[in-house]
């Protein structure tokens, strides 16, 4: 029996479809950018410069295209969305997984001491200078130059040229132990308020124990403002 086989004409070589590596790298970069933008917005900070570099495992160039958008899973538990950010890229059809990474470098102007500052000394404007640094390489605390430190007091002696972080400043208490506070509970139209007594000192954002004056119950609340706390459910 004679079998006829298809012939490949010159210039018509059959190629196997491959994963669009450039498109995947762009998606990874966009995801890392979204995480960073959300974090900076939450902190009220603004970066002066951001650099991103995507790395894909060499197997990426040999994988078939995914019939649906690949799933991106950011790995690791990190407080800040910069530095080396590992990813696991997964495709459901056809099934494959790929390791990737986005290296995110963030630069912003930070407060650095222009002179020595004694412990307990109120900080004045001429005590500080703004210096652009790569925050993704800093291992200690820092304060962006967009945050005012004027009249705050140092918690320790600070040498010239030192970065200023939270631990270098005396906490500014918004609520003091034994003081009366307004307790807010709920959200929107279901919000309610009552009076209470702070059982601990607290700065804005701190969680402290508060005694409800009406019920006598001791609850956990978070400091919102001077003399004001909220409960969270």
From TrEMBL:
Coarse class of the protein's main subcellular location: periplasm
Domain of life: Bacteria
Family to which the UniProt record says this protein belongs: Belongs to the FlgA family.
Flagella basal body P-ring formation protein FlgA SAF domain boundaries: 109-230
Pfam families: ChapFlgA
Signal peptide: none
NCBIfam families tied to this protein: flgA_cterm
Role this protein plays: Involved in the assembly process of the P-ring formation. It may associate with FlgF on the rod constituting a structure essential for the P-ring assembly or may act as a modulator protein for the P-ring assembly.
Keyword Flavoprotein: no
Gene3D superfamilies in alphabetical order: 2.30.30.760
Keywords from the named record: Bacterial flagellum biogenesis, Cell projection, Cilium, Flagellum, Periplasm
Designated name of the protein: Flagella basal body P-ring formation protein FlgA
Species assigned in the record: Aeromonas bivalvium
Gene: flgA
InterPro entries: Flagellar_FlgA, SAF_FlgA
Subcellular location: Periplasm
């Amino acid at each position: 029996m004679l079998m006829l086989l298809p012939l490949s004409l010159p210039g018509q070589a059959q190629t196997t479809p491959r994963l669009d590596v450039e498109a995947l790298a762009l998606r990874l970069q966009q995801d890392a950018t979204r995480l960073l933008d959300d974090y900076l917005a939450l902190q009220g900070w603004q970066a002066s410069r951001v650099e991103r570099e995507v790395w894909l495992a060499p197997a990426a160039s040999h994988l078939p295209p995914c019939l649906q958008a690949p799933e991106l899973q950011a790995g690791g538990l990190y407080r800040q969305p910069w530095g080396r950010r590992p990813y696991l890229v997964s495709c459901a059809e056809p099934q494959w997984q790929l390791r990737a990474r986005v290296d995110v470098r963030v630069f912003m102007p930070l407060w650095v001491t222009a002179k020595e500052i004694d412990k307990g000394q109120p900080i004045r404007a001429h005590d500080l200078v703004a210096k652009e640094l790569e925050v993704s390489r800093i291992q200690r605390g820092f304060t962006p130059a967009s945050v005012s430190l004027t009249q705050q007091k140092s918690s320790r002696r600070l040498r010239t040229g030192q970065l200023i972080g939270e631990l270098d400043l005396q906490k500014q208490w918004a609520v003091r132990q034994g003081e009366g506070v307004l307790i807010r509970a709920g959200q929107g139209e279901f919000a309610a308020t009552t009076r209470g007594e702070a059982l601990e000192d607290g700065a804005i954002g701190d969680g402290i124990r508060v005694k409800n004056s009406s019920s006598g119950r001791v609850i956990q609340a978070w400091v919102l403002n001077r003399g004001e706390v909220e409960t969270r459910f």
